[in-house]
Design brief:
0% strand; globular
């Protein structure tokens, strides 16, 4: 009689799809697959958390009136830009540092850098809270000369700046994980926080469900409610070790040397961002001197343009992660392949998008404005923006490639020079032409974007950045 057969060992379940996406090795697996895995969640995050949220917010502001649109536009596009550019510098430096260390297999160094980034973000948030809380009135008076717009702008600025730490934390969280190669977790956070923010804005702005109708202040408080939900989820994900980067208490202890290293490569991307911010600030100031309707048109045009940016920038960001990780792993050829594939994807997406924006610009603008003058001017902005949209996307790939390699200086100098010697003077000059008015600013903006893109792409193609990262 034969002995009984031993039981079959239980099948061990393989990793889930989410785990496979989150933990993909971007230094070995296919470049196109890695770009899609990194970029698609980021694009969805941008479109859902940025595009949808901003469009719905803009609609709420439009229902509150042109003065509310102008007040939020002036506050967001001028005052918030000052703090945002500093945050941008930290996130770019963080993503570059983490991607190179993860590519080289130095994960603990990457986690330490993440902790120091959050400490820097906390200091920036405190500065923003103090500035907005104490100087809200003079700041708003500086960006708009319309008394009705200023009256709405002061409470909006005060609330937005006091709660700015929520935005800073979300940006650093995304930079940490994307640098490590995980863009899926930030998407899931956004899928939760966006509906919370939209619902809170609707209820607080218009007094839904028995809540007080706070008007434009409700827009700011609603955005803060969404941000708070995101902060809670993000902190749990990082501290619990359920992400690709596990943040521990030791990583949050201040390290003067680590903070200095991050700040040493943060100020250049911050100043790089100043170039675009400078254009927006000057043009918003010029628009304010032309009247609230021009300022409202510029705000709407910028928001619509951001829809395309929310597709192009995640693609460029994914390319930056691949470039950084593969330079860290010593594979320069794979870094070049990442650039070419990213550029092809940008062209395939933004080319048709530019045609659609141009063809349906009046219909799109009409969703957010009823005033015929505002619609006409905003549609003009979208027309000129669509002409250079493809170059704008390739510009993102070029400057993020340079930054991912550690070259923070060149993108900064190119963009600052284009803004100071092309965008600003051309905008001021053309806007003074009575036959052009606001259209002069739209033309100047397109010229600035084109010059900036061509020079940046040309420098990237020279290949001076292409070298393995030294340990």
């Amino acid at each position: 009689m034969s002995a009984p057969r031993p039981p079959e060992p239980a099948a061990v379940p393989g990793p889930s799809l989410l785990a496979r996406l989150r933990d993909r090795d971007h230094t070995r697996e296919g470049v196109l697959g890695s770009l899609i895995v990194l970029a698609l969640p980021s694009v969805l995050t941008g479109l859902f958390g940025g595009g949808l949220f901003q469009m719905v917010e803009l609609r709420f502001l439009g229902d509150l009136g042109p003065d509310a649109v102008a007040a939020a536009g002036a506050a967001n596009q001028i005052l918030r830009q000052v703090i945002f550019l500093l945050t941008f510098g930290v996130t770019i430096a963080t993503q570059m540092w983490i991607s190179q260390r993860v590519g080289a297999g130095r994960v603990d160094d990457a986690e330490h850098a993440a902790g120091q980034s959050f400490l820097i973000g906390g200091a920036l948030s405190l500065a923003a809270a103090l500035a907005g809380g104490v100087f809200a009135e003079p700041l708003v008076a500086w960006v708009t000369g319309d008394p009705a717009v200023a009256a709405l702008g002061v409470p909006y600025v005060r609330i937005t700046f006091l709660t700015f730490f929520l935005f800073v934390a979300s940006q650093i969280f995304a930079a940490v994980l994307i640098g490590a190669g995980d863009s899926t977790t930030p998407l899931f956070v956004t899928l939760v926080t966006t509906p919370v923010g939209i619902a809170a804005q609707w209820m607080l702005s218009f007094g839904i469900g028995g809540l007080p109708a706070l008007g434009i202040a409700g827009i700011a408080w609603g955005a803060a409610a969404g941000g708070l939900s995101g902060l809670v989820i993000s902190a749990w994900a990082l501290l619990s070790g359920r992400c690709r980067v596990h943040l521990r208490a030791r990583h949050l202890r201040p390290d003067a040397a680590g903070i200095r290293r991050l700040l040493a490569i943060s100020w250049q991307p911050a100043l790089h961002f100043v170039a675009r911010s400078l254009i927006i600030m000057v043009f918003m100031w010029l628009a304010g001197r032309m009247g609230g309707k021009v300022q409202a048109a510029y705000t709407i045009g910028l928001r619509i343009e951001m829809l395309a940016v929310m597709v192009a920038f995640p693609l460029a960001n994914a390319c930056a992660t691949l470039v950084g990780q593969n330079l860290g792993a010593g594979d320069v050829g794979r870094a070049w392949r990442s650039i070419f594939v990213s550029s092809a994807l940008v062209c395939a997406i933004l080319g048709p998008a530019a045609l659609l924006l141009n063809a349906y610009r009046f219909e799109l603008v009409g969703v957010f404005a009823a005033d015929p003058e505002v619609v006409e001017m905003a549609a003009g902005y979208v027309f000129y923006s669509s002409l250079v949209l493809l170059f704008y996307g390739l510009y993102f790939v070029a400057f993020r490639t340079l930054q991912a390699s550690g070259d923070m200086n060149t993108p900064m100098w190119i963009s600052l020079a284009a803004a100071l010697f092309v965008g600003v003077p051309l905008g001021v000059w053309l806007s003074r032409d009575p036959s052009l008015g606001a259209t002069g600013m739209w033309i100047a903006n397109a010229c600035y974007a084109l010059v900036n893109a061509v020079v940046m792409i040309g420098w990237m193609l020279m290949g001076r950045w292409a070298r393995p990262v030294q340990p």
